[in-house]
Design a protein that fits this description.
Elements (H helix, E strand, L loop, with lengths): L1 H6 L9 E4 L4 E3 L13 E4 L2 H6 L3 E2 L5 H5 L4 H15 L7 H8 L3 H12 L3 H19 L4 H8 L4 H12 L3 H5 L6 E5 L6 H8 L8 E4 L2 E6 L6 E8 L2 E6 L4 H12 L5 H10 L20 H10 L5 H15 L1 E2 L5 E2 L3 H5 L3 H5 L5 H15 L13 H9 L6 H10 L12 H10 L8 H8 L6 H11 L11
Parallel strand pairs: 2-4
Antiparallel strand pairs: 1-2, 1-3, 5-9, 6-7, 7-8, 8-9, 10-11
Length: 472
């Protein structure tokens, strides 16, 4: 139990409570306070037992709230974020966010990092951009009015951030309402080679395909499935989509390209840490996002504890069984309803283990019946998402963190237990053996709040460099 305290292991929160005799306080195992000396620690099965011993609850980790399923601090931050997203113009700067929170500045930054994996300024900027995007699509209001209503101080500031996050101008985004194709501009240092290799990691995929510098995929989620094609032509990508699907295609392409991430900030952090070799030659690397949360959920279950190529084979077999055929011999990924209708025996015949088959079908039924609403997860706090996903049978810390960073875009996740991450850390830090889960957690802590990008680089560090030609 003391080892769990030193590791800050949230998986043990509620299993026991830690009393510190010198301070008279009891905490959760994951509490961020300074670690006590072992001779000063006592362990308790419940909060009541700790109080009966004369201890009082920690004001930092709130063990009593956790024990009864309440989390008032999280709820207050979630309320603040909801206000910020609905009316970003009411918050002219981060100081206004801090004042509204009722907490001190340091505590607000800590809580935003913990629960949303971002700083208040980052969340405020995204709220303003989202407000402008909604206005561009819903009417013909002048851009200067939309910018002011969202809280931007000038049109030039809006244009700069809008292009960085969306790969196009606001006017071009408004044109998506009637578009069938459009261009997305990319940074000069965009890692074309790694992006292309990521897209084609399963050359036999039935839902996506890479041919030269052209990528074609069936996009599911948020409506009827549709075919999307990316033509990589430096320094941009031309996107083709079905009529009426351009807005969804833009969102899918931006996620695949990872435009809403901060590789420059992560590269600077690595260099300050003296670990510039982690990003050498690929400083602009992004983590490609899967367009469908349910597709990411299926892969997180299928890919657990088996060889990558065999996982790809199982995924293809599931797609053939429960997906729907589209144009160009591609399939739409299976819907939750389609997988929920399957019987375990159908998957056993495809070489799925019984446990994996039961996990897949069980998770699909939860989604199909609305017991877990996958559509709301991208906007929820990371804390709520993690708790909801851990409640799904078959999802553990590795699969939950994998899903959070690959399908939901959270930037500070670590898929603990991932062999690629452990092997990358062994190489990066020149260790004699691969680190275990506790050592991985400690080593990855230095990369916060960019641990998802650190994971992406660690996956690459032992891989050969992809072919070096740039798309023309």
């Amino acid at each position: 139990m003391y080892a769990r305290i030193l590791a800050g292991d949230a998986d043990y929160d509620g299993r026991f409570f830690t009393g510190v005799l010198t301070t008279g306080i009891y905490c959760l195992p994951s509490c961020k306070a300074r670690k006590p000396k072992p001779e000063n620690v006592r362990f308790f099965p419940t909060c009541e037992a700790a109080r009966n011993a004369g201890l009082r609850p920690c004001r930092r980790c709130h063990p009593d709230d956790f024990a009864r399923g309440a989390d008032p601090v999280l709820e207050s931050i979630e309320t603040l974020v909801a206000e910020l997203r609905s009316a970003p113009d009411r918050f002219p700067d981060v100081r206004a966010v801090v004042r509204r929170s009722g907490f001190g500045s340091t505590r607000v930054f800590e809580l935003f990092r913990q629960h949303y994996h971002t700083a208040p300024a980052g969340l405020l900027l995204r709220a303003r951009l989202d407000a402008v995007k909604r206005g561009l699509l819903s009417g013909d209001e002048p851009l200067v009015r939309l910018a002011g209503d969202a809280g931007f101080e000038s049109l030039s500031v809006l244009h700069e951030h809008f292009r960085d996050h969306n790969g196009m101008t606001p006017a071009a985004y408004r044109g998506l309402r009637d578009a069938r194709e459009f261009e997305i501009a990319l940074p000069e240092d965009y890692p074309w080679m790694h992006f292309r290799r990521t897209l084609g990691r399963d050359p036999h995929s039935l839902t996506e395909r890479v041919a030269g510098d052209t990528y074609t995929a069936v996009i599911a989620g948020g409506g009827a499935p549709f075919l999307m094609t990316l033509h990589i032509r430096a320094p941009s990508v031309r996107v083709e989509a079905a009529p009426g699907a351009a807005v969804r295609a833009h969102a899918a392409a931006v996620g695949l390209l990872g435009l809403d991430q901060e590789p420059d900030a992560f590269a600077r952090l690595c260099r300050r840490l003296g670990l510039g070799r982690l990003v050498a030659g690929r400083a602009g690397l992004r983590l490609s996002q899967t367009p469908s949360v349910f597709d990411g959920l299926m892969w997180a279950i299928i890919g657990q504890q088996i060889h990558f190529k065999f996982a790809c084979l199982l995924k293809r077999r599931l797609v053939e069984l429960a997906g729907s055929r589209m144009a160009k011999d591609l399939y739409a990924p299976p819907s939750p309803e389609a997988v929920a209708r399957l019987k375990p025996e159908e998957l056993l015949a495809l070489q799925f283990s019984r446990r994996k088959a039961e996990y897949l079908i069980g998770a699909a039924r939860l989604a199909a019946e609305g017991a877990i609403d996958l559509a709301v997860l991208p906007a929820a706090s990371a804390t709520r998402v993690e708790r909801a996903l851990l409640g799904i049978r078959g999802l553990g810390p590795w699969s939950v963190n994998y899903l959070m960073m690959r399908s939901l875009g959270f930037p500070d996740c670590v898929p603990l237990g991932d062999t690629g991450v452990a092997s990358g850390l062994k190489t990066l830090f020149r260790l004699e053996e691969r680190p275990d889960i506790d050592a991985t957690r400690r080593l990855m802590a230095v990369f916060s709040p960019y641990r998802s990008l650190a994971t992406a680089h660690l996956w690459q560090i032992n891989q050969p460099e992809p072919e070096s030609h740039s798309p023309q």
